[in-house]
Amino acid sequence: MLIKDRVLEALEANRGVYFSGEALAGKLQVSRSAVWKAISQLRESGYPIDAVSNRGYCLRAESAILSPQSIAQYLAVPGLAVEVQPVVTSTNTLLRQQAEAGAPEGTVLAATEQTAGKGRRDHSFFSPPDSGLYISFLLRPNMEAREALLLTTCAAASVALAIEDCTGEPAEIKWVNDVFCRGKKVCGILTEAALDLETGGLQYAIVGIGVNLFPPEGGFPPELNEAGVVFDSKPQRLESRSQLAGSILNHFFSFYPNLAEKPFFADYRKRSLVLGQPITILERGQTRPAVALDLEEDFSLRVREEDGTVRCLSSGEVSVRPHSR
After folding, report:
1. Which of the residues 21, 31, 120, 271 has the least number of beta carbons within 10 Å of its own beta carbon?
2. What gap in Å lies between CA 219 and CA 245, rounded to an integer?
3. Rounded to whole angstroms, how far apart are CA atoms 227 and 221?
């Protein structure tokens, strides 16, 4: 780990607390000049570090910069390798390159802006600067391709639980993988995978999560009329991005070791936005009305169509229709 990263780690763990250059040097077993150089580098990167004579250095408590060190404060699961890049094309795209190069399970990439964010069905994902959290993690599960839906639903439950942890407000899940707050979509999830042709299982999977935290400058594009934000204004809590990232990872990787047992099923079903509701099914380019009845154990959606036929959906999209008067 670079000296500046070690300095940042010490300051992040003690936001608002002053450390003398001598104390930091002793703690990290480096020279005072190395500490001074690291502080200068961190300031150049935008970290709000105060320096006061006879007191030392202090990372302001209101620092909102996302970093591996800021996320680490909230992590309760070991073994994750977290990388943060302020601006990326797509966290999924870059992490896929790392996966192909042999990166291990538990590699995490987070960003605060994407220039080519990816959504489902080749759609783009609106990822403007400094208003969201974009995070992807690499998995190498021992599972068949048909079971990959478990990764997506586990991620959706994890995001909903994390939002509730960080805000105290309820979150809902629209089947399969959209998270809503106050009736608006605040999160989309895209799971991509590579198939091992010899075994028929997954070589690796990448779970990408995009969360709208704060209202973007200029608002959302008109076509995103369903989009909403976790926090109505910015800033409500400046450390919320790091806290949310840590909470999402904590929930997901606490479920992941027992994924086959679906330990998150009850949390997912409890937060369903569609169960018992009239819905519109979009499948293979066609739409038709139905009613969402229940969630099956494999996370397929049991629906009753207009002609009374009951069937289970394992793919496609649904939207909630207003109740007829």
Report:
1. 31
2. 23
3. 9
CA–CA separation, 88 vs 111, rounded Å? 7
In terms of Cβ atoms closer than 10 Å to its own Cβ (0-12, 13-18, 19+), residue 247 is buried
Residue with tokens 């959504």: 119
With CA atoms as reference, report the closest residue to 165 among 76, 65, 64, 63.
Answer: 76
The label of the residue with tokens 């070991």 reads: 78
**Can you tell me the distance from the alpha carbon of 71 to that of 85, in angstroms, rounded to the nearest whole number?**
13
CB 138, CB 96: distance < 8 Å: no
Which helix (DSSP H) or strand (DSSP E) does residue 145 occupy?
none
3-state SS, residue 245: helix
**Number of C-beta neighbours around residue 131 at 10 A:** 21
pLDDT digits (tens, 9 = 90+) for 209-261: 999 999 988 888 888 888 999 998 765 455 788 999 999 999 999 999 999 99
d(CA 198, CA 68): 36
Q: Partners of 279 in the beta sheet?
A: 290, 320
What is the spatial distance between Cα 107 and Cα 95, in angstroms, rounded to a whole number? 8
- Degrees, nearest 5: CA angle 271-274-275: 80
Looking at the DSSP assignment, which residues form a beta bridge with residue 88? 114
By percentage, how much of the chain surpasses pLDDT 90? 66
Question: How far, in Å, are 33, 61, 157, 255 from residue 251 at the CA level?
Answer: 41, 26, 8, 6
179: phi then psi, degrees, rounded to nearest 5: -110, 135
Biggest alpha carbon–alpha carbon distance for the chain: 79
pTM: predicted TM-score of the whole model, two decimal places: 0.86
Residue 322 carries which DSSP code?
A: P
Q: How far is CA 2 from CA 7, 13, 155, 196, 307, in A?
A: 9, 17, 32, 37, 65
* Distance between CA atoms of residues 147 and 143, nearest Å: 6
Separation in Å, CA 8 to CA 34, 39, 68, 83: 13, 8, 10, 14
C-alpha torsion angle, residues 187, 268, 272, 299 (rounded to 10): 100
Is residue 148's pLDDT more than 80?
yes
